[in-house]
Specification:
The protein is an alpha/beta fold. It is 45% helix and 16% strand. It has 13 helices and 12 strands. The longest helix has 16 residues. It is elongated.
Length: 334
């Protein structure tokens, strides 16, 4: 369309296609129409360069074309060096792009931001919500679920509501990591946990406990998935636990922090202390030594989350819980 030309209208498309304005409207809003008419309209749209008016279209379809990914975390946490968040967002974006849907990223790191997001969602400004990185019985998940808006969650939701979820086998992955350390001859294995108000943190701790069983007294130090917490937890383990010869950290960033502290204190990895992480982020291959870790399909979580939500929005049945597999990746640190 040349500068100054009028923007093509429904009438322009109808005239080019040789059909009524109502037929063009039905095609644009994906309503039933004869295949020959649909082909004519689609060809005319391409020829004249027609772009549907989204506001008017929303009045007909009751859809905004906007899908929310809500992360109950602060901006400093989401935009940190934790590769979980960008990879999750990438997976979600890829799936929504394939379906011509738009992503809205919303951070709910405070009660005020949670309230704003709840009001926005309930008011119909988004077609559905994906929740990820939930802590405890987050009130936002319950409020959204009870409002009737389509909602899905990364990992199962704690609390009284049932929300379709997409997660990974955190417990099995952690168990495999610790069993690998046992099989390599390690006899005093400690763990650095993730937040124990999160499903991933709880399940990975349970996997550690499953593996050590009654063979040793558990050696547990709490972390929050960050590198700094891994450093602090490793210092506590060295101060409070004797004879530790292996550590399973519930995230690669915490394992990297633990590795730094072990080196500072003269321990060789893996000769003196073996080390295993969880996530298989890119930097796990770049540490010295390269980090043994449990690989989880973070991009796949995002794609499944988006696909589940789009099915819910379309009124299609969804699985109540999808659990993706994890895999132990053995490198030089163990």
């Amino acid at each position: 369309m040349a500068r100054g030309d009028r923007r093509p209208t429904l009438e322009t498309v109808a005239a080019r296609a040789g059909v009524s304005r109502a037929t063009v409207s039905r095609v644009i809003n994906d309503q039933p129409v004869a295949p020959s008419s649909r082909r004519a309209v689609e060809r005319a749209i391409a020829e004249v360069g027609y772009v549907p008016n989204q506001a008017a279209r929303s009045l007909v379809t009751q859809r905004t074309g906007l899908i929310a990914l809500v992360l109950p975390e602060s901006s400093t946490r989401v935009f940190s060096d934790d590769q979980f968040f960008p990879r999750l967002i990438q997976g979600v974006s890829q799936e929504l792009d394939d379906e011509d849907e738009q992503l809205a990223l919303m951070l709910a790191g405070s009660p005020a931001s949670r309230a704003r997001i709840e009001r926005s969602a309930v008011a119909g400004r988004v077609d559905g919500v994906m929740l990820a990185s939930l802590h405890g019985t987050d009130p936002l998940s319950e409020a959204l679920a009870k409002s009737g808006i389509p909602v899905v969650s990364n990992e199962r939701v704690l609390g009284p509501v049932e929300v379709p979820s997409v997660g990974v086998d955190n417990r099995g992955g952690a168990r495999a990591a610790v069993e690998h350390l046992i099989a390599s001859g390690r006899t005093r294995i400690a763990t650095i946990t993730g937040p124990t108000d999160m499903i991933a943190g709880m399940d990975r701790l349970d996997g550690y406990l499953d593996a050590v069983g009654g063979s040793q007294e558990p050696a547990v130090a709490a972390g929050d998935f960050t590198r700094a917490s891994g450093e602090a937890a490793m210092k506590r383990l060295l101060d409070e636990e004797s004879g530790v010869d292996a550590v399973f950290a519930a995230s690669d960033l915490m394992a990297e922090g633990a590795l730094h502290v072990l080196r500072q204190n003269g321990f060789r990895v893996p000769d003196d202390v073996a080390l295993v992480g969880f996530d298989d982020i890119t930097r796990a291959r770049c540490t010295e030594p390269a980090l043994t870790t449990v690989s989880q399909p973070i991009d796949g979580i995002g794609r499944h989350l988006a696909a589940q939500l789009l099915r819910l929005i379309a009124g299609e049945p969804v699985e109540p819980a999808i659990t993706l597999t994890t895999q132990l990746v053995v490198r030089e640190s163990s």
